[in-house]
């Protein structure tokens, strides 16, 4: 295909983030390469300290800022610097770059929250990109100059846990940093929208003992990320778009009306008990989630309706009635995927109409995952999670999905049938 300056396309892969998709970026004067998770559920650009040699970066400007972010069971903390960040398009013809942008450096992480990836590119809005100014602390402790790098490199500053350091930061002045993608749009590098074209929500494993490099060559483990004007990539989708309204820009907040299993009656999605600073609607679309998270009551109803379609399904789904924060597989020959029904999500559309998005069995059962000849069910629940659906990568797999942040007050999510290329 010919390249157009109206959009930029980048190769992505799900191999390094256990199903999540990573984009290669190049940081600083040395163009240090890092594979960062594309995450619409956060807003910070963060790279692990071991993957980026700050001392070798002639473009680096230290700041007095620090950040700490937690993702469910994971998290990290570290200093914030400013440096050059560049992306290379899939045709290797163009660089998309900012000469100076904020980069957080994760000096300490917990629970391997990046898996084999090197960090995260947050694609959400500014409210999730909080930083804290430690000028007064640094001056009091006679750190000169009063900047968080290289002060953070001191071993004594790595003793705190992520939770402890996050609490420590909250006593200092807070500011919101402009996320990386927002800066790209404000510098007129790209239009204010991006899209995902993916095939899987779990790594496709056909043989054991494959290296990450070998798995990356598998077409099913690859995808395309498009920035700018994604509708111009007409080779990636077919037909018209269904449009879901974004209700708030805390995350990509949507309203989930109901979930329907085959010909069963639709099950109404529960509403949040209260709208608060963190939870603004009963659903978010989150590319950082490799599964679909349902409130426990809706998850139980899903299993009940599947069992009503075929009682054998209840036995197959037994391992998924608990969740231990790891992907679990069952023998692939037990699933008989052709017997399973379509599952539909009914969401609020752009004009408050109902928009229905379908998941076929091959989308919510990932075959050859997490191991060869296993199948992985893509619905989970989290204990004590509020009445909010996290609509992760399985919802995107059958679609070409555009996050158009220009539409209406908060934007719209455009879903079209994915084409085969």
Characteristics:
421 residues, 28 strands, single chain, Cathepsin D, subunit A, domain 1, 2 domains, 14% helix, mainly beta, 6-stranded mixed β-barrel, 4-stranded antiparallel beta sheet
Structure commentary:
- By secondary structure, the chain is mainly β.
- The chain folds into two domains: 7-190, Acid Proteases (Cathepsin D, subunit A, domain 1), CATH 2.40.70; 231-418, Acid Proteases (Cathepsin D, subunit A, domain 1, Beta Barrel), CATH 2.40.70.
- The chain is 14% helix and 38% strand.
- It has ten helices and 28 strands.
- It has helices at 135-140, 148-151, 162-169, 180-186, 212-216, 296-309, 312-316, 332-335, 361-364, 393-396, and strands at 7-17, 20-27, 32-39, 45-48, 61-71, 74-88, 95-106, 108-110, 119-122, 130-133, 174-176, 193-197, 222-228, 237-245, 253-254, 256-261, 267-268, 283-285, 292-293, 330-331, 343-348, 354-359, 365-367, 374-377, 379-380, 389-391, 399-404, 412-418.
- The chain has a six-stranded mixed barrel with strand order 2-3-9-4-7-6. The protein has a four-stranded antiparallel sheet with strand order 17-16-21-22.
- The protein is globular, with a radius of gyration of 22 Å.
- The relative contact order is 0.15.
């Amino acid at each position: 295909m010919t390249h157009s300056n109206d959009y930029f396309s980048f190769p992505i892969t799900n191999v390094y983030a256990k199903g999540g998709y990573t984009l290669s970026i190049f940081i600083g004067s040395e163009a240090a390469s890092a594979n960062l998770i594309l995450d619409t559920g956060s807003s910070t650009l963060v790279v692990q300290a071991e993957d980026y040699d700050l001392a070798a970066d002639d473009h680096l400007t230290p700041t007095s800022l620090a950040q700490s972010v937690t993702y469910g069971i994971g998290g990290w903390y570290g200093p914030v610097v400013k440096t050059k960040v560049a992306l290379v398009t899939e045709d290797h013809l163009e660089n998309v770059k900012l000469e100076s942008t904020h980069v957080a450096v994760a000096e300490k992480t917990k629970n391997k929250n990046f898996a084999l990836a090197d960090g995260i590119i947050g694609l959400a809005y500014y409210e999730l990109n909080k930083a804290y100014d430690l000028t007064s602390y640094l001056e009091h402790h006679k750190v000169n100059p009063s900047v968080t790098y290289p002060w953070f490199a001191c071993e004594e500053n790595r003793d705190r846990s992520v939770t402890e350091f996050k609490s420590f930061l909250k006593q200092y002045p807070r500011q919101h940093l402009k996320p990386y993608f927002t800066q790209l749009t404000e510098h007129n590098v790209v239009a204010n929208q991006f899209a995902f074209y993916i095939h899987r929500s779990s790594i496709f494993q056909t043989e054991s003992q494959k290296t990450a490099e070998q798995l990356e060559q598998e077409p099913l483990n690859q995808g395309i990320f498009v920035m700018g004007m994604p509708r111009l990539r007409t080779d990636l989708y077919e037909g018209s778009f269904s449009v879901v309204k974004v209700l708030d820009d805390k995350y990509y907040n949507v309203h989930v009306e109901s979930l329907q299993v085959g010909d069963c009656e639709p099950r109404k999605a529960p509403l949040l008990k209260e709208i608060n600073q963190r939870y603004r609607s009963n659903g978010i679309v989150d590319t950082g989630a490799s599964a679909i998270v349902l409130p426990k009551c809706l998850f139980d109803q899903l299993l009940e309706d599947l069992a009503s379609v075929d009682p054998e399904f209840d036995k197959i789904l037994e391992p998924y009635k608990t969740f231990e924060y790891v992907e679990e597989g069952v023998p692939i020959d037990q699933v008989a995927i052709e017997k399973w029904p379509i599952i539909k999500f009914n969401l609020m559309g752009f004009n408050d109409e109902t928009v229905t998005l379908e998941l076929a069995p091959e989308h919510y059962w990932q075959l050859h995952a997490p191991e060869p000849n296993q199948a992985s069910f893509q619905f989970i629940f989290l204990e004590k999670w509020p009445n909010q659906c996290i609509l992760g990568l399985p919802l995107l797999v059958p679609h070409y999905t555009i996050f158009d942040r220009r539409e209406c007050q908060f934007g719209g999510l455009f879903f079209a049938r994915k084409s085969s290329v």
